[in-house]
Amino acid sequence: MFKNFGNVFRFSFKNAITRGYKILTVIIALACIAVPILIMVISARSKDKGEKSIDACGADIIYVVNDLGGENSDFNTLNMMGEKNYTNIKYVNCASIDEALAKLEDDKNNIELSFILGFEEKNGSPCAYIVVPDKRIPEGQARNYYDFMDKYESYFMVLAAGLDEEGLRQIITQSEYQTYHETGFNEDVAIEDSAENDDVMASNVLSTFKSVLPLFTLMLLYFLILAYGSSITQSIVMEKSSKLMDTMLVSVRPEALCMGKFLAVALAGIIQMFVWIGSIVLGFVIGNTICSKFYPDANFGLIAFFKAMSRMHVFSIPNVAIAVLMLIVGFLLFASLAVVAGAISKTREEAAGASFLFVLPLLLAYFAVMFGGGLESGGAPTWMLYVPFTAALITPAYVSLGVISFAEGLASYSIMFVCMLLFIVAAGRLYKMMSLYKGNQLKMGKVLKMLFTGESAMVQKK
User: Element (H or E) spanning 61, and its range?
Assistant: First the structure.
């Protein structure tokens, strides 16, 4: 029955894998990798608790010339900030710039490096300047001190204005706010530093995934089925419209010709679908690796979610395996209806008109999911998970996320699989019976009668 099936399959598959197909697959795959990486890196940078230290300014001693009124302010209190590279600088007050320049000149033969930090008023506003000794401290390195001043600008202005040391200490002491549970308070563990906080963040991300992932599978299958359904229908009817059917059937059985074309085009779609899904997974893996290496102190929802997946029973291996099978079978379910459309058509025009056989169920399922509560954070109605057409669009996501159990996923998969087989058998039978039909376009009633009685269209025409 399937004589030369392999030849038909290889030829059709080769024609389906065109240059445009490859380019589109690669471009979208690269985008699917890049987007998760960008999302994770941007989130990590915004949540990273670790602050980069300011580069050293190169000075061991800084001579301070303060013309803003705080001549006796002790700038050594700046070492209390705890800023790396700025905790052991010696600050020496000078009465004038001339005194500071003289000390800078005297230091040329010393091992310790120094420069001048001055404060003055210009145009009614306080400003600061640095005087660097010739050839001892590079200007670029000394300018790092401006970064230190920018970070602690208010403290510098307070010192320059002459606030006493005790007042400065009170300002420097930054207030911290923490939230504790009673047990955490006794153990001095704040909520934001506890595993409970990670679980809360992971739960929030899971709730988002319950809406986003079903929407993703819905849109992915929707567009792939629309694109490949038409290709399958036109491929099935090709020999009929070009009047090559009589010649083809000498060496290939109708069933082999039909199934070879169907599976070849369907396989091209399935490969594309899983390349894109795999690219998204790879993007999140790379993003997680980058965040762990470059932003180890970052703590945000996605990181917490990935750490808690096994504990939350999300993306477990059995459930993912069922979800993968459901994606394949769901795609083949609609694709088999496209084969039926091609089987009952004798021209490309008729095939385009018969495409409602797979477009109509797809549209009905699409709108049922979109407006029937199928995307409400895992709250899809039970019937939607077991009606094969709606189940094909969203159940793979719900199974992989653990919203429904492995057993429920297996039951849904079984229903879809049986329906798919029935449609494929019907498509093959109709194609065989219609392979040499040259009469008027068949009505749906005659198609159903032919399907259940087993009589060919040629017999009925007589």
Answer: strand 61-66
